[in-house]
């Protein structure tokens, strides 16, 4: 049976890593059909719109999208397209696995195997009432946490743990200081945990969680937290296992899901053919799990591991001198 997915090639190194990823997916013979759509700077240049309606329609129609990085300016300019997509489709669960890989040069060559589940649609990134005083001396941004949002993300984390055979869920918070928003999240997490007696529940203040992740990451299994904390923690976890070049992400909602590489567009190396495609490939593996092809997902992951072990075609960030497409071809040969 054919599965049509929306493909967004992105900005910067996006088109290069997408071409490499599709090369591997094509070798899988997974019955995928691609519907290409534009977003980001490429869409602005072509259509005069960062997120054309046709792209939104494509994602809504197919319910599954594979997306390369999109440009987001720092400190000004247009609002993050990624945030806009999550809000538009109510992609409330951001799922970021971090697992040890061989030959990455990371501090933890083995023993890390955890998942960060981050609430994706509210909290600090909603930035309610965001303003700067006329004299530029005071800035304000509000945060809103809801019982509904907290309950569904914590429940998602427990269901993920149960379905994947994981044993523990850790709720990360700052309820000792931020007693309103973070306090509500923790209260709801405790309530939800009571419905999953088969899963160990732990709660941990965010600063301690970060320290513990660096010192003993093997103690964690599934972490669930609010938007801002989840953004920071998931990147920290990527640093434990080799960096953002090996960090995929899934954005899951009830009616749509978008899978991606979580790193940026890397304009300094765009067009040079040296970007690591693994993050997007691992995101594609998450996509394959989502559409009911776990065996093909595992084939992709094992082929990546085998290529890292052989270290014959890896890119410069992993200590090699391979190209983006060459890396992908080596992975495809090992499927």
UniProtKB/TrEMBL annotation:
Question: What is this enzyme's EC?
Answer: 1.1.1.41
This protein's source sits in the domain of life called: Bacteria
Q: Which GO terms describe its biological process?
A: isocitrate metabolic process; tricarboxylic acid cycle
Could you give a GO molecular-function term held by this entry? Answer: magnesium ion binding
Q: Residue limits of the Isopropylmalate dehydrogenase-like domain? A: 4-331
Which Pfam families does the UniProt record give? Iso_dh
Q: What class of enzyme is it?
A: oxidoreductase
Query: Which chain regions cross the lipid bilayer?
Result: none
For this UniProt record, the keywords arranged alphabetically read as follows: Oxidoreductase
Q: Which family does it belong to?
A: Belongs to the isocitrate and isopropylmalate dehydrogenases family.
Q: Which PANTHER family match?
A: DECARBOXYLATING DEHYDROGENASES-ISOCITRATE, ISOPROPYLMALATE, TARTRATE (PTHR11835), ISOCITRATE DEHYDROGENASE [NAD] SUBUNIT ALPHA, MITOCHONDRIAL (PTHR11835:SF34)
Cited NCBIfam families: PRK08997.1
Name of this protein: Isocitrate dehydrogenase
């Amino acid at each position: 049976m054919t599965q049509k997915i929306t493909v967004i090639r992105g900005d910067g190194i996006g088109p290069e890593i997408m071409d490499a990823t599709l090369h591997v997916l094509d070798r899988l013979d997974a019955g995928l059909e691609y519907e290409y759509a534009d977003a980001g700077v490429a869409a602005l240049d072509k259509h005069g719109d960062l997120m054309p309606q046709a792209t939104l329609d494509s994602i809504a129609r197919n319910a599954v999208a594979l997306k390369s990085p999109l440009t987001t300016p720092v400190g000004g300019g247009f609002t993050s397209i990624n945030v806009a997509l999550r809000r538009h489709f109510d992609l409330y669960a951001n799922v970021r696995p971090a697992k040890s890989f061989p030959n990455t040069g990371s501090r933890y060559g083995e023993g890390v195997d955890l998942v960060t589940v981050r609430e994706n649609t509210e909290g600090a990134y909603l930035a309610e009432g965001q303003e700067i005083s006329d004299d530029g001396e005071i800035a304000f941004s509000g945060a809103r946490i809801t019982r509904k949002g907290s309950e569904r993300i914590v429940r998602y984390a427990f269901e993920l743990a149960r379905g994947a055979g994981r044993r523990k869920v850790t709720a990360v918070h700052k309820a000792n200081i931020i007693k309103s928003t973070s306090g509500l999240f923790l209260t709801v997490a405790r309530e939800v945990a009571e419905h999953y007696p088969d899963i160990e529940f732990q709660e941990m203040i965010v600063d301690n969680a970060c320290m513990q992740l660096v010192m003993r990451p093997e103690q964690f299994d599934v972490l669930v937290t609010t938007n801002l904390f989840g953004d920071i923690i998931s990147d920290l976890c990527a640093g434990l296992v080799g960096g953002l070049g090996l960090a995929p992400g899934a954005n899951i909602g009830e009616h749509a899901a978008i899978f991606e590489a979580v790193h940026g567009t890397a304009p300094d190396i765009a067009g040079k053919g040296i970007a690591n495609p693994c993050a997007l490939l691992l995101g594609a593996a998450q996509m394959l799990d989502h559409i009911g092809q776990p065996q093909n997902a595992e084939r992709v992951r094992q082929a990546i591991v085998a290529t890292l072990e052989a270290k014959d075609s890896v890119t410069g960030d992993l200590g090699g001198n391979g190209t983006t497409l060459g890396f992908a071809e080596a992975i495809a040969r090992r499927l």
